[in-house]
Design brief:
Layout lengths: L14 E4 L3 H13 L5 E4 L40 H22 L11 E3 L2 E6 H16 L8 E4 L1 H7 L1 H4 L8 E6 L3 E3 L1 H14 L4 E2 L2 E8 L5 E7 L5 E6 L1 E4 L5 H8 L8 E12 L2 H5 L4 E3 L13 E7 L2 E11 L12 H5 L5 H10 L1 H12 L2 H11 L9 E14 L6 E4 L2 E6 L4 E6 L7 H12 L4 H11 L11 H14 L5
Parallel strand pairs: 1-2, 1-12, 2-8, 4-14, 12-20
Antiparallel strand pairs: 3-7, 4-6, 5-6, 9-10, 10-11, 13-16, 13-17, 14-15, 15-16, 17-18, 19-20
Helix pairs in contact: 1-6, 1-13, 2-15
Enzyme class: oxidoreductase
Catalytic activity: (S)-malate + a quinone = a quinol + oxaloacetate
Protein name: Probable malate:quinone oxidoreductase
């Protein structure tokens, strides 16, 4: 390193991955498949990887496949349910499973996939006559889709008591209930998966630098990116030059992309929401709820508020999580700064952010109600799922920060709040970043494949054989090819040990 902190050109990596979460880990693994000759380096500001949204206690670990998440199957004014979004998300999760299977066959996790993925039934649950009618329509719409083969439907408390006994005990026998169940669901420890993928990358020569914060990004005249990295312990800075930069820093991605000065980030903003969950480790309660159960969001509440009661299997610890309960912090990361939100406001996005402030009054009201909720009110919400819940069995934990994407609607010019993920590509494909939240981690492989296609279109034809070896359905549709789906499903279930 020179006196001014510049790393000699011979030591510069081809690719810099910012953030030690599931997205960077996935991209590092994919680059190991298609371009093993490229040098790659990962920089994480915390003392360990997977400490933010990828951390197992910072997300529900559902393995989003739309088997139970009702917000992915909206009903129209006529009551008909549109399965299109659910089909897309389920297929994306199947892509992830194929790639994880490929890595396991290659030695990741020492052949023990249960360290990061475990079979857990996924259940949808509704109450009331309207809910029952919706569930019937949803079941009929999904049962015709090959990706949802085996989905079960039930009406009545006696039937649901066989699936979720904890939730039916003590319930008013007159209450109308309905649900669906898929035994193909999973619980995923994305923290463990992230660490395994980065350890695997490390064995291929990919260094993972912790306590190293990427402080600034500037594009130089030759097209390379000048990456300024600061040691969070000593304050020492060094400067790297890379041909490609991926910003997978969760809530920290927006500020870095703004510093990079790419025009594509203009108009984007972020709205941080912190999540809280009630958790119990009671062996008796856990034994009576061996599922992940999703309900419906309250009328007028945002999709992020969908209540769910999840079995979690984390590092040998079995517990239940119920929530989410929303909180508010201006931080963009759990370990972020209280000035993250105000610092993100720029001339290029202030219109979008003010527009959302005017149009998303439902979100504002929801957050205010959540912030003012008492302990008794939170217990009442839990009791709607678990009628006999004892507050003494549950403690409140804080989950990860979620930064919802604010973007400018090209049709109206107004700001809109987006409950999903957004891939931003700039610098003629030399830099990319991922913004947003759910379904996030579960669809990381599809997101990073899209990145490869958008940033390296010239290389894709040469890379396709390797990608198809790792992901047999790459370039094809599982929902349109039942024979391929059956083949892929059988292989991944065997490799990932998901047969029960």
């Amino acid at each position: 390193m020179t006196p001014d902190g510049v790393v000699p050109d011979s030591a510069n990596p081809d690719v810099v991955l910012v953030g030690g979460g599931i997205m960077s880990a996935t991209l590092a693994a994919l680059l190991g498949v298609v371009a093993p000759q490229w040098s790659v380096a990962v920089f994480e500001s915390a003392a360990d990887v997977a400490g933010e949204s990828s951390g197992p206690w910072n997300n529900a670990g559902t393995g989003h496949s739309a088997l139970c998440e009702l917000n992915y199957t909206p009903a129209g004014t006529d009551g008909a349910v549109d399965p299109a979004k659910a089909v897309v998300i389920n297929e994306q999760f199947q892509v992830s499973r194929q790639f994880w299977s490929h890595l396991v066959r290659g030695g990741m996790s020492d052949g023990s996939p249960k360290t990061f993925i475990t079979p857990v039934p996924h259940v949808s649950f509704v109450t009331g006559e309207d809910g029952r009618a919706y569930m019937r329509n949803r079941y009929e719409a999904l049962a015709r889709q090959p990706l949802f083969a085996g989905l079960e439907h039930a009406e009545g408390q006696a039937e649901l008591a066989e699936w979720v006994p904890l939730m039916m005990a003590g319930r008013d026998p007159r209450q109308v209930v309905a649900g669906t169940r898929s035994v193909a669901g999973t619980d995923v420890n994305f923290g463990a998966l992230t660490r395994l993928m980065l350890e695997d990358a490390g064995r291929r020569g990919v260094p993972v630098h912790t306590e190293q914060r990427v402080h600034d990004l500037r594009r130089e005249t030759d097209g390379r990116w000048r990456v300024t990295v600061r040691d969070t312990r000593t304050g020492e800075k060094r400067v790297l030059r890379a041909r490609f930069v991926f910003v997978g820093a969760g809530g920290g991605a927006l500020p870095l992309l703004q510093r990079a000065g790419i025009p594509e980030i203009k108009g984007f903003g972020g709205f941080p929401v912190s999540g809280k969950f009630l958790r119990t480790r009671s062996p008796e309660l856990v034994s009576r709820h061996q599922a992940k159960v999703y309900g419906q969001a309250a009328v007028g509440a945002p999709p992020m508020s969908v209540p769910h009661l999840d079995l979690r299997l984390i590092d040998g610890d079995h517990s239940l999580l119920f929530g989410p309960y929303a909180g508010f912090s201006p931080k963009f990361l759990k370990a972020g700064s209280l000035v993250d939100l105000p610092r993100s406001v720029r001339p290029g996005n202030i219109g979008s952010m003010l527009g959302v402030a005017r149009t998303e009054m439902a979100l504002t009201r929801y957050l205010v109600r959540e912030l003012l909720q008492s302990r008794d009110a939170r217990h009442t919400t839990l009791s709607a799922f678990v009628p006999e819940a004892d507050a003494a069995d549950w403690d409140m934990i804080t989950a990860g920060q979620r930064v919802q994407v604010i973007k400018r609607d090209p049709a109206t010019g107004r700001g809109v709040l987006q409950f999903g993920t957004e891939l931003v590509v700039g610098g003629e494909g030399s830099i990319a970043g991922l913004l947003g939240a759910s379904p996030g981690a579960s669809t990381a492989v599809s997101a990073m494949l899209t990145l490869l296609e958008r940033c390296f279109p010239e290389q894709i034809p040469a890379w396709t054989p390797a990608l198809q070896e790792a992901i047999p359905s790459y370039g094809r549709s599982l929902s349109a090819d039942e024979a391929l789906l059956a083949e892929v499903r059988a292989e991944t279930m065997q490799t990932l040990e998901l047969n029960g």
